Amino acid sequence: MSLTHLFFSPGGETERVARHIHNRTGGSLINLTLLNARHHFDTTQTYEHVVLYMPVYSGHVPKPLLSLLKSLQVNRLSVLITYGGVTTGIALREVTNAVTHNTLVSYAIIPVHHTYGGHQNAIDMRQLDPLVQVIKYPTDQSVTTPKIRWPFWLDWTESWRTRFNYRLTHHPNRCIQCGACQKVCPVAAITEDYQLKRSCLRCGRCVRTCEQNAWTAKQSWFLKRYLKKPRRAHFTMCFHPQDTHP
Predict the structure, then answer these.
(1) Which pTM value belongs to this model?
(2) 59 and 108: one domain?
(3) End-to-end CA distance of the chain
């Protein structure tokens, strides 16, 4: 059986989960984080079994990934969603609605280190071992996703809240114009003169990549307080029909 692992991971935590599962199940591993990789991914074929790994962005599927998912056709689908312990929103439902599939083999909601820091709730990777076996030896029995109510009014202010709470600044006096930040940007949001487009995800990849500290990020007081609040992150796996949520 052909097994294809697809991951989108600007922060690196989702990739860590993907590589852990891939090392134990085999198959092909495809990184869809960069724009060029998504453009060249073949959506014309039907894949036998796809394991999809992605983070939650403000309760949703990351926007750069959504159009690809709507073109994806698979027989068996497994979905592993990572989140920083705040909320998983409706990302799982959005994935299963977007991807054309015959069987939802399994899904997992996995707490990882939040991209912006704060209170951490990352799991021990060994907790994923039962899921590894299901991915290696899938059945044709499908599970269903839970029904979640989502306050859609949050979406109206999402863009503004993200820009306000996580402000990125470019420092020309430090920049050597090496283009490293532009190469790693998941949405090609950094222009030739190092300005940010509105498509910027605020993932912080440019900050972590630049060795000259030419990009800096400032978190708002509200975000800092929000991240410091202790939370009990929930780790969920579902791979048996009897585990299916109503």
Answers:
(1) 0.91
(2) yes
(3) 30
